[in-house]
Design brief:
binds acetyl coenzyme *A; four-stranded mixed β-sheet
Length: 331
């Protein structure tokens, strides 16, 4: 019995912010952003919006996609680095309540932009171990909430959004054609943690009641260091996945990379000796939505009729931690 993706959906805020919009408030330009990253637009939550609002919308869309209802869900995993609350309750519990998923356990996963591929593997193991039948894996982020909008090195790169997959146990017919999560690979290198960090607000440097948090509310990034890690990680993870699954790259129909920077995706294509059109790319519209970027891309592909039953797809991601990983899935 294999764990397979039964339903997929996404939820992106309606408010679109273009590069030209950003250039009105920070020293940047559409030309710089597009030529260095491939980004044209990002979507940002309205004031008061939180990760669970987007996670809830994506979960509803994934359940609708496969005709399941919330009562059938055994577990909710929300991959996020922008939870509704620092610590607790988890965003997964907030979503569980809003969905009315009364039979579901719920917890968050913190693996930054690799969170969704981590979540798929956690779900696969629970399902193939016979513990659960239906697990909602959600990537949901509101990075706009922890972005320093005066820092042009970071604020142009990110957007808000959520994507969700209902991962289910094959019933002997759904997985008889080999449909399912075939193999995953997950890695971490905590020695690179400082390259992408939100240093304050946790137990190491708690916000103090007698000082205004100021810029320490925001995350910081060493763009060059993350870039070098990413260029190595994406291609390497792809090669490891292929070796684990004993597959040749020519059998992969589509690669769905984490959408952080078109130049990182181009480097991955070069390493795997693949043309860029084998990669699904929607960074121009959504920017980097961290853990949400891969499920948003999958939902996009499904909606456009690009994803077809029987296709072999590969996900590859990298993120803060530092983390990286991926999955090979027969759709
Ligand atoms: N607009 C205009 N100029 C800018 C901007 C901007 N938005 N940002 C930086 N610059 C300037 C810099 O100040 C620098 O100017 P200088 O030469 O006068 O000092 C110049 O552009 C070049 O800067 P670089 O940092 O060398 O630009 P680079 O081409 O390396 O691109 C980038 C920077 C896009 C951040 C790249 O390093 C990158 O994509 N890194 C990976 C980031 C990433 O993927 N992060 C997400 C990780 S996933 C997660 O877990 C959240």
């Amino acid at each position: 019995m294999k764990a397979y993706i039964k339903g997929i959906g996404s939820c992106v805020p309606a408010r679109k912010v273009s590069n030209d919009d950003l250039a009105k408030t920070v020293d940047t330009s559409d030309e710089w952003i597009y030529s260095h990253t491939g980004i044209k637009n990002r979507h940002i939550v309205e004031e008061g919006g939180a990760a669970s609002d987007l996670a809830f919308g994506a979960a509803l869309a994934a359940l609708k996609d496969c005709g399941e209802n919330a009562a059938a869900v055994d577990m909710i995993l929300v991959a996020t680095v922008t939870p509704d609350y620092l610590g607790f309750p988890s965003t997964a519990c907030v979503v569980q309540d809003r969905l009315g998923a009364r039979n579901a356990a719920a917890m968050d996963i913190s693996a930054a932009c690799s969170g969704f591929v981590y979540g798929l593997e956690v779900a696969r193991v629970f399902i193939e171990g016979g513990v659960y039948k239906n697990i909602l894996v959600i990537g949901a982020e509101t990075l706009s909430r922890i972005t320093n909008w005066k820092d042009r090195n970071t604020c142009v790169l990110f957007g808000d959004g959520a994507g969700a997959a209902l991962v289910s146990a094959g019933d002997g017919t759904a997985d008889s054609s080999g449909r399912g999560i075939i193999v995953s690979h997950l890695e971490a290198d905590g020695s690179g943690g400082s390259a992408l960090i939100r240093p304050d607000g946790g137990s190491r440097n708690p916000f103090a009641p007698d000082r205004a948090p100021g810029d320490t509310l925001f995350f910081r990034m060493d763009g060059g260091k993350v870039y070098r890690f990413a260029v190595d990680a994406l291609g390497r993870v792809g090669e490891i996945l292929l070796a684990k699954a004993a597959l040749d790259i020519s059998s992969i129909d589509f690669i769905i990379p984490h959408q952080a920077n078109i130049r990182i995706i181009e480097a991955c294509a070069k390493r795997l000796s693949l043309p860029l059109d084998k990669f699904y790319i929607n960074i121009q519209e959504f920017a980097n939505t961290s853990s949400a970027s891969i499920p948003i891309a999958l939902a996009d592909m499904k909606q456009k009729g690009i994803l077809k039953a029987g296709q072999l797809i590969m996900t590859v991601a990298f993120g803060a931690g530092l983390t990286c990983g991926g999955n090979i899935i027969r759709w």
